[in-house]
Amino acid sequence: MLSWTIAFLVIALLAGVLGFTGIARTATGIAKILFYIFLILFVLSLLSRLF
Fold first, then answer.
1. Ranges of the chain with pLDDT below 70
2. What is the pTM of this model?
3. How many CB atoms lie within 10 A of CB 6?
4. At what angle do helices 2-18 and 21-50 cross, to 10 degrees?
5. Which of left, alpha, beta for 19 (phi over 0: left; psi -120 to 50: alpha)?
6. What pLDDT is stored for residue 6 in this prediction?
């Protein structure tokens, strides 16, 4: 999941540099959502290992 986040972040950066602001904004939004999902699953995984 983290690799998808990094991929969308790279797409957003490239689109931003090339001037495609709509695509960059969309890719950034997707990367943020995937990162938060990854973070929540990571914390849940850590908590399940503790108990």
1. none
2. 0.75
3. 12
4. 160
5. left
6. 87
